[in-house]
Design a protein that fits this description.
It is a single chain. By secondary structure, this protein is mainly beta. The protein is built from two helices and 31 strands. A five-stranded mixed sheet has the order 1-4-5-8-2, with no helix packed on it. Strands 3-7-6-9-10 form a five-stranded antiparallel sheet, with no helix packed on it. A hairpin with a 4-residue loop joins strand 16 and strand 17. The protein is rod-shaped and about 130 Å long. It starts with a helix and ends in a 5-residue tail after the last strand.
Length: 453
Amino acid sequence: MISTYVQILLIILFWNADCQIIPRIEECGLSCSQGIHCKSKPSGGIFSSFCHDAPASLSSVVLKSMKISTVMKCVQGSPCSLHLNIKGTLSLDENVRGLEICSFSLDTQQSQCINVRFTKKKGKMLSGKKVQVQFNCIEVNVAQHIYVTMKTVPHYCEVKLSQQYYVEDCRNSDVGKYIPACSAGKLDYNLDRARKIVTVNVSNFPRDQDYYVRLCHKWFTCEDAGAFAVGWLALPDARRVQLCPFENDTQVLWDNIVYNPSTQTLAWEPACPVLVMVNLCRFTKLNDHCEDIEKSFKNSSEKQVKYSRVDTHPRLCMKFTTKRGSWIKCPFAHGEFPAWKMRTAAVAEQIQVFFTSQTKAQFSVLVCNRTQMASCESLGMHHSVSVGDPVSITMSQEMCGSTICIQGWRTDVDYSVPLQICDTFCGFHGQSYSDGNPPKAMAHRMKSVESLH
């Protein structure tokens, strides 16, 4: 484990790399040590000269050092530009008339070279004197890979300094703020849903630079949008701007639901990673509510959310919950799979319960007291029944009421929709009516779960 001190040091180093301020210049030029007069002129290029054998009297360390940095030239009324700031030190020698500084772009294969000539004041000897040279007129682009050389004039074999240098990219806050090439541009779009076409318009970017636009998916998290458009300049590490034309179409993420009838397996596989809680629920017509089914909650850490031995009832649905809200998908609602039905009939002091199904199925029935929408407390009367075999439940007068329900569900699957028929009707001998009519010995009333909540 990295120590806290090392972690802090790494943070500081990365922060400095991205936030380093680039020195400013208003004019570029050549300067040499005090007392040394120098002037520059363009030379033929990095490959235009051949080397000569060095004289025996030439010091092997005539070129002392070379340092490279970046400066930013900013002139009022004009955009800023980046330049190489090259500093070199050499010892003057009677065999050396000057030096040549060249830069070669490994990205564009282009070179720039200048010759620096030294002149002495009358009566002064320069041999052996150290001279510092600074030149900052070589303009470079953001994130360029540069190869810089410094040679003597004339060019003696094996007497040169060379160094590779990487120009700061747009991640540097100073470069990103003031260099036009780092502008991410602005994206606008038109969405034609009928023709399934997205038209992207790009503005606010340098016209002399190529600009890339592509449509892609957020693979690390697609909860916010799924597909989105990204635009950036054709430069290494250029800033990118994105827009999400489908950010309000989150519901399409939950479409990939598949049911396998042979294994009775219901599965959902995300198109891309999304933080979501998935569970099964029972859809009700009241306020489009979907009551959660216990022990069916699963999170999206798995590549596929799967439920085995699932009831194909039209009211069995999947609920997807994220920090943005919840979405309900009912894969069996369109009647493509066989469904079962429950009916009741009140006959005298009994309630008869019937189940119909296109497939062989086993059910359980109980009488319960519905205290709230999602809760129905058992009253201790529980029965098992098969398709086509009705079950009769004896009801006492105290058990007849608006909150008393007959609840049925499949027992031959792992996940079933519990259906309820409430406000059961009972007929009892000896019951008095306000109109004085004698009570009927038998009262019939049929109820189907299809018309209930």
